Amino acid sequence: xxIPVITSAIDADNEEARPRRVSNTANLFLIPxxxxxxxxxxxPLLGLLVTSLFEFNLTQMAMYRFVWLSNYVTIVQDxxxxxxxxxxxxxxIESVALQIVAGVAIALLFDHRLPGLSLIRTLFLAPxxxxxxFAGMIWRLFLSxxxxxxxxxxxxxxxxxxxxxxxxxxxxIHAVVIIVSWQWIPFVxxxxxxxxxxxxxxxxxxxxxxxxxxxxRFTAITLPLLMPIISTVLVFRVIxxxxxxxxxxxxxxxxxxDSTETLSYLVYQQAMGFFNMGYGAALATVMLIxxxxxxxxxxxxxxxxxxxxx
Amino acid sequence: MISGIKRRKTFGxxxxxxxxxTLMTSTAALAQSKGSITVSAVSSFKLIEALVPEFTxxxxxxxxxxxxxxxxxxxxxxxxxxxxxxxxxxxAQDIVWLGEWSKNAYVRPLDDLxxxxxxxxxxxxxxxxxxxxxxxxxxxxxxxxVTATYFLMYYRTDLFKQAGLAExxxxxxxxxxxxxxxxxxxxxxxxxxxxxxGESFATWFLAAYAGAGGKILKDAPTDFTPTxxxxxxxxxxxxxxxxxxxxxNGAIGHDRPDQTIAMQTxxxxxxxxxxxxGTEFVKPEVSSVAGKVGYxxxxxxxxxxxxxxxxxxxxxAINAKxxxxxxxxxxxxxxxxxxxxxxxxxxxxxxxxYSALRDAAVxxxxxxxxxxxxxxxAGQVSPDFRPRYPFWPQIVEALGLQLNSAALGTVTPExxxxxxxxxxxxxxxxxxxxxx
Lengths: 310, 436
What we know:
The structure holds two protein chains of two kinds. Chain A is an all-alpha fold. Chain A contains 14 helices and two strands. In chain A, a hairpin with a 7-residue loop joins strand 1 and strand 2 (64-66). The longest helix of chain A has 34 residues, at 18-51. Chain A is globular and about 75 Å long. Chain B starts with a helix and ends in a 6-residue tail after the last helix. Mean pLDDT of chain B is 91; it is low at 23-32. The interface between A and B is medium-sized, with 24 and 31 residues.
């Protein structure tokens, strides 16, 4: 809107040239954004792709040779990659499902005017403000079998030998899901609460007059009208969950065994542990493709929901 | 009016005097200043912070001491070395980084500076095992040792006495004592070791393996064949995992600090660990068992075997790209001097000089110093229990995962070691070292 106004003022006496000049001016305004995109996204991405085509290990300076797609072939043959992919997918499904369900439920609860609720709402956002690695450390202490508060409370409740939450392969990944969900449920709540507050109240009143109960009102009004918000949140949370690293690093270190070894952890291990930059870059590229593909699918899904609503 | 003028005059005089004094001080400071250096080191070097002002006062060289967690120091140093920058002039170098740093000449050889500035008598004071292990490779000296730490088996003398147990020597002794000293109802356990996946488990296991007479690389530097598929390695791992029965409930998730805390709080009767951690057991201000802690060598398979002292330590190395070589060397000389080493020994019990090791106050505080002294003189120090070559991270990863899996019971000890051995063999070959 602004651009035609500005250009028309500049070029008021030249009607024929206007469209062309509008276009040039617009392009000029786009240059900073374009340069920034190239510098901050394009170049690192190119660097990543190029590095992934080399055998390049920082611990052995002589080792730097072009190997075509050899690193990608190694990935396909690497059982650790397939294991990490399985762990990552399981983690994403479990953690995002928990965050969405709990987030919507808590948002519904917070959408009432109850005394003290505004204070609780504010405090509820606190986990989101903690650095994930620090959140992991807090939870590691909380779940410690030696001096953890969780064990103490469970023993008070009569459970004499609670499980080793972070040291038992059967529980570790679920414990990480809980920690990540604890941190990011407030994010879902925040969005859903905003969505709930713009749903017209008269819809509920009309439904009530028609005899609809709370469940019917939720499924027929709340959920459909909240769907665009939920699907947007879903995109954010899935992308973030796919990249989970900090909490795992701080709590389990990929263990016990390899039960919490995700793709991000594998990339970190190769690039920052072994300084195997070529293979690490190839793994990061594959991960980027997985994340981007999934994000595109979710965005399309989001658009369909938006269109359906319209 | 007159008093106002006087006041202004007085104020003016004071201001002029202050300005002159400031200028004089600044000029003097500039005259004394001999520049600055940046030193990057791991968390355990935090205690030298208090001593650094003494160095600056003595030499006029300002020191920017940057303390980083172990992983970050490794990442930062590697990034700087590869990019050829000298953001840090001096780096703390772990013994296991020696091969990588020397092979790529990331740091400057110190032989010429040592020959120029360190007298032969002074050099004789440096623990020979520590010096060779931490700093020397390929006929050159790449760093100067500043801390030396030895694996020992620490045990509770009071509990052993009560139970009528003698000092443990063999794996069988440890097994018997661990079982006998475990009273779960009293929250008392026989032993604790690191069992969590990662570097600690790999290091502690290799120390136990060395104690039993094992050596991970067959005959480096001529033959790098890994030996973890040997019967001795399997026997050691079975014992190590067997100790879980006498360890605290959550031991399967324990790392190095958990073991230290378990000993400090009196929860366990035995802990094999580096002497730098052992110092934490005998300090009354942080340990509830101070005065009740004995020490012995790492367990052996047979009492007739010679004891082995698995060794670890840090040196200080000069970035090959720095132009501040003299200032950096001055700092290293100061930190490794007999005077500073004795001061440090009283704080952390990890001296790398005989003079500090034999200091009466140091020996009174950390009674295992004479044992270390003897081991150094007898050449019983075993630095190669962890390979000091660039493929060490791959060993940690392969071994850490397989050992943890064996401890969890998802694979047998034999299979775990076989898998790790094969992965390590591949990593060694990929790194270009000879395997027969």
